[in-house]
């Protein structure tokens, strides 16, 4: 194997990675296309919940408790680190100024649905 050769075949010329339906329906610039299917499913679930105005409102925001309730409960323990990483890439955490108030996560603008 040549130096720098990963041992993987390059994709056939003229083909592109499959774009998931949720990515086609929303502006998801920055979402890595090279995720495994199970990993991509986690990213899509994050998008779906934060883009659902009945759940996250028009500001596409959830408290940390809501993130745990709506998303984290469905994540297998071996995917916890991936979930946290994707959440941090796709959302911004705003910490509360008061001790007993929750922080909230807001979907980054580049992931908001197109109008």
From TrEMBL:
Residue ranges crossing the lipid bilayer per the database entry: none
InterPro entries in UniProt: WHD_Rad26_CSB-like
Localization per Swiss-Prot or TrEMBL: Nucleus
A Pfam family assignment: WHD_Rad26_CSB
This protein's UniProt keywords: ATP-binding, DNA damage, DNA repair, DNA-binding, Helicase, Hydrolase, Nucleotide-binding, Nucleus
Domain Rad26/CSB-like winged helix DNA-binding: 59-111
Principal localisation: nucleus
Region (Disordered): 1-24
Family: Belongs to the SNF2/RAD54 helicase family.
Identification of the protein by name: ERCC6 protein
Gene it is expressed from: ERCC6
